[in-house]
Design a protein that fits this description.
The structure holds two protein chains of two kinds. By secondary structure, chain A is an alpha+beta fold. Chain A folds into two domains: about 35 residues; about 110 residues, Alpha-Beta Plaits. Helices cover about 25% and strands about 15% of the residues of chain A. Chain A is built from five helices and five strands; from the N terminus they run αβαββαββαα. In chain A, strands 2-3-5 form a three-stranded antiparallel β-sheet. In chain A, strands 1-4 form a two-stranded antiparallel sheet. The longest helix of chain A has 21 residues. Chain B is an alpha/beta fold. Helix content of chain B is about 20%, strand content about 20%. Chain B has eleven helices and 23 strands. Chain B has an eight-stranded mixed β-sheet. A five-stranded mixed β-sheet of chain B has the order 2-1-5-3-4, with helices on both faces. Chain B has a three-stranded antiparallel β-sheet with strand order 6-7-10. In chain B, α6 packs across α11, α7 packs parallel to α8 and α7 packs parallel to α11. The longest helix of chain B is centred in the middle third of the chain and has 18 residues. The chains are: A alpha+beta, B alpha/beta. Chains A and B meet through α2 and β2 of A and loops of B.
Chain lengths: ~170, ~525
C-alpha cells in the first residue's frame, strides 16, 4: 500500500509554498539551459521523436517489382480486422497468373486500432504497418485511406517493394 | 436388407447400397472427392479406403457393395496412413493458392486436409504448371492447376445434363479437364458443375470474386423461377443476395437446379426494387410509406368499390404464395368483387426432361386452386378489353416479381393503367412506371419470395412451404398485410426479440476463430 505524503504545516502558508514551487522550476530551468540534450520534452512539431523500426503506425500497401499492387484481394486482413475498418473490392485481373486484384482498398483510419492483425493475416506481405504516426486531416474523407494513399503516397517514393513477388514464385515453381 | 458393422456400430442399409452410403447414413466421417450421391461411381480419388474384415486388403468404400455381416472400419492406423498419403498425392500439383481461390471457406480440399492431411509434405519436385483462367463457356471458368481430376464435372455432363461437353485430356500429371474444340460448356445446367467441384477449379463467372463465402449467410427457400419449384439455398449478407444453390430434394429437383434459376436473386436486390409506395392522382408522383398508402387507399377506394363492385377487377399472376391468394380472395368476397383475371405470359407445358418447365410462375397451380373456390379466372386480355370499353374502372394488379420472363410486361402495364383507379402491387420497378395512363395510380411495394414465409404449389400439385430468409426492402408488405390494411384493420407485429436462427452459417463475426 502506498502512502500519500501529507503536506507539511508550512505549506499552509502562502509564501513558503510558492517559494518552494518556484525553486523547483528555477532549478530545472538552469539544468535544462546548461544541458539541453538531457531535456525530457521536445519541441514538437519542429522536433519529432524517433520510434523503433517495429512501431505499428500507418499502413503501407506494398508493390511488386513492376510497381503494381502486391495485394491479391483475398480479404484475410478484412476478415481478421477486429475494428472492421478495411473494405476491399476485388476484380478479375487481365493477367491469368495474377488472377485477382483489388480495384478498391480502403482503410477507415479513425476506426483502426493499430493492432497489426492485418499485417499478420496477410499471406503475401502486401500490407505492412509503417513508422508514420502523424495523420492530420481537414475533413472526414482525409481519414479514408485509398490505394493511392496506402501504396503510392509521396513519402513512400513510388512504393515499398514486397518481399514476395509473383514472378519469382512462379519461376521457383511454388 | 443387409446389416453391417461400421466402426463398431451396427447399421442396416438398403439392398445394393455401397459402404460409403452406409457411412453417410450414419454421419460417420469418411474422406472422399470423386463420389457424389447424384452421379455414377468413378473410384478415382482413392481416398475412401476402408478395412473390411476378411478382405484381401483395403477396399474403396464407394465401389464396394455392403454384404450381410460385413465388419468395416476406417479408424485403423493403416487406413489413416493411406488417406494421409492419398491426400498428399492429390496436393502434389495443387497450387495451394487458397487466399486467391474463390472456393476457400467451402472447399473440400481444405476441409479434408484439416481432417486427414499430412501437414508436412515430402514432395520436393516442381509443380506442373497448367492453364489458369480458362473460359469454358458462358458461365463457368476453369483453373486447371487447382483441379484434382475427380471427374465429377465430366460425369455430370455425361449423365445428368447429357450434353457431353467436358472431358479429361492428356495423360499422367498433364491430365486436364477441358472442352472440345468449338464446343463450349453452354448447357442450361452448367453451374451445377461448379457446385459439385470439390476444389476451386470450376468457378461461376457470376459469383467469382464478388464475395468471400464466409461473409455470406444462407437459408433455405424455394426457387420461384418456374413451376418446378426447386429447393434452394439463398446466400446473402447486408448488401443483398449474392447467389443461389440447390438443396437436395428427391421429390422435386434431386441435387440440381438450372442456370436460369441461379439468376432469381438478381431482381430481389435493392437496385431493382420498388422501395416506397408511390401515388399519382394528377400529374405528379408523390412517395409515401406502404402502410400509409394502404390506409389512404382504404379511405378513398374501399367504400367506392363496395358500392359498385361490378366495376372492379383484380389481375393476378402466379408469383404469390397460397396464403396471399387466400387473403386476396377473402377481401374480394367481402367487397363483393367477382371479376378476377389471370395474367400469365409464359403459359406453356414445355418440359426439358430434367427440371426446366415452360410455365415460369412458381405458383400457377396454387392460384388455380385458390381461385377454384372463387370462380373462373378470365384472361388478362379480357381485362384490357373491359378497361378499354369502360366497364372496368378500378383495377388491382398483383404484378409478377420475376419480370424477365414476362415478355409483354410493358404493354400489359400500359393497357391496364388506362383504368380510372389503378392499384399496382409489385416488388420491382421498371422504366415503364414513369408513364401511367391512369388518373389515380397507386404503386405498393411488395415483398419478394425471400422476404416472406408461405407455400408454393408446384406443377405436380406438391405444396412446398418455405420460410423468411432475409429482409431486402424493409418498407415492403406481403399481399396478406396489404389486404389487412386495405380492409382498414391494423397489423400486429411481434416486437419481442427472436432467437438468431438465420445467423447459423458462416457469419464471420460469430465464427471468426473457427475459420
Amino acid at each position: 500500500m502506498s502512502k500519500v505524503p501529507q503536506p507539511s504545516e508550512l505549506s499552509n502558508w502562502y509564501l513558503p509554498g510558492i517559494l518552494k514551487g518556484l525553486g523547483y522550476t528555477f532549478t530545472n530551468m538552469v539544468k535544462n539551459i546548461l544541458n539541453p540534450k538531457k531535456m525530457s520534452t521536445l519541441n514538437y512539431p519542429e522536433e519529432k521523436y524517433k520510434y523503433s523500426a517495429r512501431f505499428k503506425g500507418n499502413h503501407i500497401l506494398t508493390v511488386k517489382k513492376d510497381g503494381s499492387l502486391r495485394c491479391t484481394a483475398c480479404m484475410l486482413c478484412a476478415t481478421n480486422c477486429p475494428a472492421q475498418c478495411i473494405s476491399i473490392t476485388a476484380s478479375e485481373h487481365e493477367d491469368p497468373t495474377v488472377e485477382k486484384y483489388p480495384i478498391n482498398y480502403e482503410i477507415d483510419i479513425l476506426r483502426c486500432v493499430f493492432c497489426g492483425f492485418c499485417e499478420e493475416a496477410c499471406p503475401v506481405d502486401a500490407i505492412r504497418m509503417g513508422p508514420e504516426w502523424q495523420t492530420p486531416g481537414l475533413a472526414g474523407a482525409d481519414f479514408h485511406y485509398d490505394i493511392k494513399k496506402l501504396a503510392y503516397r509521396a513519402n513512400l517514393k513510388g512504393g515499398i517493394q514486397s518481399s514476395v513477388d509473383d514472378k519469382e514464385r512462379h519461376e521457383a515453381g511454388i | 436388407m443387409p446389416k453391417c458393422t461400421i466402426n463398431g456400430k451396427e447399421v442396416e442399409v438398403k439392398e445394393g447400397a455401397t459402404i460409403i452410403e452406409a457411412f453417410k447414413t450414419m454421419s460417420e466421417d469418411i474422406a472422399h472427392y470423386c463420389w457424389h450421391p447424384g452421379l455414377s461411381i468413378a473410384g478415382v480419388c482413392r481416398l475412401c479406403m476402408v478395412d473390411v474384415e476378411g478382405a484381401r486388403g483395403p477396399q474403396i468404400a464407394c465401389n464396394t457393395v455392403v454384404k450381410d455381416g460385413m465388419v468395416i472400419t476406417n479408424q485403423s492406423e493403416q487406413i489413416k496412413d493411406i488417406v494421409r498419403w492419398g491426400m498428399d498425392f492429390h496436393l502434389i500439383n495443387h497450387p495451394l493458392d487458397c487466399p486467391i481461390c474463390d472456393q476457400a471457406g467451402e472447399c473440400g480440399l481444405q476441409e479434408q486436409y484439416m481432417k486427414f492431411g499430412q501437414y508436412d509434405p515430402e514432395m520436393n519436385q516442381q509443380k506442373v504448371k497448367k492453364r489458369k483462367v480458362v473460359d469454358l463457356g458462358e458461365r463457368v471458368v476453369l483453373d486447371s492447376e487447382r483441379c484434382i481430376l475427380c471427374s465429377r464435372c465430366v460425369r455430370f455432363t455425361d449423365e445428368v445434363s447429357k450434353t457431353n461437353e467436358l472431358g479429361i485430356f492428356n495423360r499422367g500429371d498433364r491430365s486436364e479437364v477441358g472442352t472440345f474444340k468449338d464446343k463450349p460448356l453452354n448447357n442450361k445446367y452448367s453451374i451445377n458443375t461448379v457446385d459439385i467441384c470439390p476444389v476451386g477449379a470450376l468457378t461461376s463467372k457470376d459469383f467469382r470474386f464478388r464475395q468471400r463465402v464466409w461473409y455470406l449467410k444462407n437459408d433455405d427457400t424455394v426457387c420461384n423461377g418456374c413451376s418446378t419449384g426447386c429447393n434452394v439455398k439463398a446466400y446473402f449478407n447486408e448488401e443483398g443476395l449474392f447467389r443461389v444453390k440447390p438443396v437436395y430434394n428427391e421429390e422435386v429437383n434431386g441435387h440440381w437446379m438450372c442456370d436460369d434459376g441461379r439468376d432469381i436473386y438478381k431482381y430481389v436486390n435493392k437496385e431493382h426494387r420498388l422501395l416506397k409506395a408511390k401515388n399519382n392522382s394528377g400529374s405528379q408522383w408523390s412517395e409515401l410509406t406502404a402502410g400509409k398508402a394502404m390506409q389512404e387507399l382504404h379511405n378513398s377506394l374501399f367504400a367506392e368499390i363496395k358500392a359498385a363492385p361490378e366495376k372492379t377487377g383484380v389481375v393476378l399472376t402466379g408469383q404469390y404464395t397460397n396464403e396471399e391468394y387466400q387473403a386476396v380472395f377473402a377481401t374480394l368476397k367481402e367487397l363483393g368483387v367477382t371479376q378476377a383475371f389471370h395474367w400469365n405470359d409464359t403459359d406453356s407445358d414445355d418440359f426439358d426432361g430434367l427440371l426446366i418447365r415452360g410455365d415460369k410462375n412458381p405458383n400457377t397451380k396454387g392460384l388455380q386452386n385458390a381461385a377454384s373456390a372463387f370462380g373462373a379466372l378470365k384472361s388478362v386480355a379480357d381485362a384490357e378489353a373491359a378497361i378499354a370499353s369502360g366497364s372496368l374502372e378500378t383495377v388491382m394488379v398483383l404484378a409478377p416479381e420475376n419480370i424477365a420472363v414476362y415478355s409483354n410486361y410493358d404493354k400489359t402495364f400500359a393497357a391496364l393503367s388506362k383504368a380510372k383507379n389503378f392499384v399496382w402491387f409489385g416488388a420491382n420497378k421498371t422504366e415503364c412506371f414513369e408513364t401511367t395512363n391512369s388518373s389515380n395510380t397507386w404503386m405498393i411495394p411488395i415483398k419478394s419470395f425471400v422476404e416472406k414465409s408461405g407455400t408454393f404449389t408446384n406443377h405436380a400439385g406438391l405444396d412446398q412451404t418455405f420460410n423468411y430468409v432475409t429482409t431486402v426492402v424493409a418498407g415492403a408488405l406481403t399481399m396478406s398485410e396489404a389486404m389487412t390494411l386495405f380492409k382498414g384493420e391494423t397489423l400486429e407485429f411481434d416486437l419481442r426479440a427472436k432467437p438468431m436462427t438465420s445467423m447459423k452459417n458462416n457469419h464471420f463475426t460469430l465464427n471468426r476463430g473457427e475459420l
